[in-house]
């Protein structure tokens, strides 16, 4: 982890990304000439913190190239509200979305390539499956590009989510899926939270994910995923881990800290924070608007799960059940400037 004072310039923020990445991993997994795929979160055209910070992309791309990566590819497919594709056609464009939120410029200017799943076509996906018992009935369909890369680096953000409660590293995996797999996730929603975690248990992701890093100098503390109140704490933090679950334990704690300390009470009402009411019904409406009346009529609902710690968050809890429990966090402050109150809060939220 690294504390980043509010108002820090681009050079300081990118330096924090590099320091955290090098503290979280020794990069022994990276051989000269390897291909690395960086997956940001580009769910909408809206800028950071509604999507991944372009500065985290700039810092990570440059670092990987310096360490010998032969190719660095940055890519994603946004949420179905912005881009949707099936056998009949497509609406929206991932390229247009990433131009608007700044992620494409950050990738190209730093020396990476870009790859958008929709541009390869609806058939450019392969089936994979979770390594452990899962709640998925159909195939998990991932983009073929994953078969042509050696490593994956995930760059999520920290945000509330109107349907899932939170969107951190684990939730970012939805962006890999073809839209018919996304339909099953949302329609068969009685196991909505469990299935989100289980995407990350797919063999391809388990074999190739090397590092997860979030820039969280801003945090979207309400609504989500595409908009909400943007808290700007002082300091902000950058944090990373080779463990997706450990990363998300810190990420959730940071979201809770910012909801508690940096979000006005007026923003935490049901109108501005709809997960507080009936997310299961909102999800069914979302299914109907996206996939039609038939999907709506066959859709399942679910109840809101109040989240006050790592142990109460259902997506993290399912991941922990899959992977042998929650890891014991070791919070390493690479700059020695993280306030003790924040460190103590994050540790407390990780064990309660």
How would you describe what is shown here?
The protein is α/β, with parallel strands linked by helices and 352 residues long. It has one domain: Rossmann fold, CATH 3.40.50.11440. Helices cover 35% and strands 18% of the residues. It is built from twelve helices and 15 strands. Strands 1-15-12-9-2-3-6 form a seven-stranded mixed sheet, with helices on both faces. A hairpin with a 2-residue loop joins β4 and β5. The two termini are 21 Å apart. The model has no long low-confidence stretch (mean pLDDT 97).
Tell me the CATH topology: Rossmann fold
Question: Residue-averaged pLDDT, rounded?
Answer: 97
Q: H/E series, N to C?
A: EHEHEEEHHEEEEEEHHHEEEEHHHHH
Structural class: alpha/beta
Order of the strands making up the biggest sheet: 1-15-12-9-2-3-6
Number of strands: 15
- Reading off the top of the CATH hierarchy, the class is best stated as Alpha Beta
Q: Helix fraction?
A: 25-40%
Provide a count of the helices.
12
CATH architectural label: 3-Layer(aba) Sandwich
What proportion of the residues form beta strands (DSSP E)? 15-25%
The shape is: globular
Distance between the termini: 21 Å
Low-confidence stretches: none
CATH-level-4 superfamily name? LarA, N-terminal domain
Radius of gyration: 19 Å
Main beta-sheet strand count, sense and barrel state: 7 strands, mixed
When the domains are counted, the total is 1
What's the short story on this structure?
With 352 residues, this protein is an alpha/beta fold. The chain is built from 12 helices and 15 strands. It is 35% helix and 18% strand.
């Amino acid at each position: 982890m690294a504390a980043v004072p509010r108002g820090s310039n681009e050079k300081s923020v990118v330096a924090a990304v590099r320091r955290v990445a090098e503290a979280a991993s020794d990069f022994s997994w990276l051989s000269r000439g390897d291909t690395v795929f960086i997956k940001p979160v580009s769910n909408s055209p809206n800028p950071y913190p509604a999507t991944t910070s372009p500065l985290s992309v700039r810092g990570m791309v440059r670092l990987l190239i310096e360490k010998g990566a032969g190719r660095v590819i940055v890519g994603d497919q946004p949420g179905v509200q912005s881009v949707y594709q099936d056998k009949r056609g497509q609406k929206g464009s991932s390229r247009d979305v990433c131009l608007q939120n700044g992620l494409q410029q950050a990738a190209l200017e730093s020396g990476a390539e870009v790859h958008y799943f929709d541009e390869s076509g609806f058939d450019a996906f392969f089936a994979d499956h979770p390594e452990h018992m899962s709640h998925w009935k159909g195939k998990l369909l991932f983009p073929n590009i994953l078969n042509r890369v050696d490593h994956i680096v995930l760059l999520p953000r920290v945000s509330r989510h109107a349907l899932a409660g939170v969107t951190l590293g684990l939730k970012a995996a939805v962006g890999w899926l073809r839209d018919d797999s996304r339909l099953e996730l949302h329609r068969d929603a009685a196991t909505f939270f469990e299935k989100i975690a289980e995407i990350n248990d797919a063999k391809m992701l388990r074999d190739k994910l090397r590092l997860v890093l979030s820039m969280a100098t801003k945090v979207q503390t309400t609504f989500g995923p595409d908009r909400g109140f943007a808290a700007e704490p002082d300091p902000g933090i950058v944090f990373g881990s080779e463990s997706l679950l450990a990363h998300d334990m810190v990420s959730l704690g940071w979201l809770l800290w910012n909801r508690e300390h940096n979000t006005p009470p007026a923003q935490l009402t049901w109108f501005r924070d709809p997960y507080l009411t009936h997310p299961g019904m909102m999800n069914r409406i979302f299914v109907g608007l996206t996939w039609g009346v038939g999907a709506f009529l066959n859709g399942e609902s679910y109840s809101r799960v109040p989240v006050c710690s790592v142990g109460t968050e259902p997506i993290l809890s399912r991941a922990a059940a899959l992977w042998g429990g929650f890891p014991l966090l070791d919070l390493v402050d690479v700059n020695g400037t993280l306030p003790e109150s924040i460190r103590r809060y994050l540790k407390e939220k990780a064990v309660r």
